[in-house]
Amino acid sequence: MPRGTLEVILVSAKGLHNSDFLKKMDPYVILTYRAQEHKSSVAKGAGSNPRWNESFLFTVSDSVSELNLRLMDKDSFSKDDFLGEAKIRLEPVFVEGSITETAYNVVKEHEYCGEVKVALTFNPEKRSDLGFGEDESNIGGWRESVRNY
Questions:
Q1: Keywords assigned by UniProt (predicted)?
Q2: CB 9 within 8 A of CB 119
Q3: What is the mean pLDDT of residues 103-108?
Q4: What is the pLDDT of residue 139?
Q5: Which three-class secondary structure state does DSSP give residue 131?
């Protein structure tokens, strides 16, 4: 499993089902990877088509290969409304290094309820493949030696 840093750029959403009847929704997103969680800003009054253009960093260090996005509507006097979620498989970004802005389906109770646009970049951890620490004279396990005759 790769180790490194995953950058998630939360771009926008569109076609979200409106949970507010008298006013426009105030959507935000909770991004979760393993036990790491980030929350976007609230797009006040953005309704069904919010834009965020925010970046979030996650540390990748085990076999979890899915990013979860929970879209919510901020409410002032009651519990925030759950709008739906998108699950993003991360294997492609681990292989390619980056995935350009892509739309992912937002689903609630097995029904489509909009889409969210995200761009992904994976920066692998720098590590030594030399076998003997950082000493480059040990490349391939052979130490170059100099003899004085």
A1: Calcium, Metal-binding
A2: yes
A3: 97
A4: 47
A5: coil
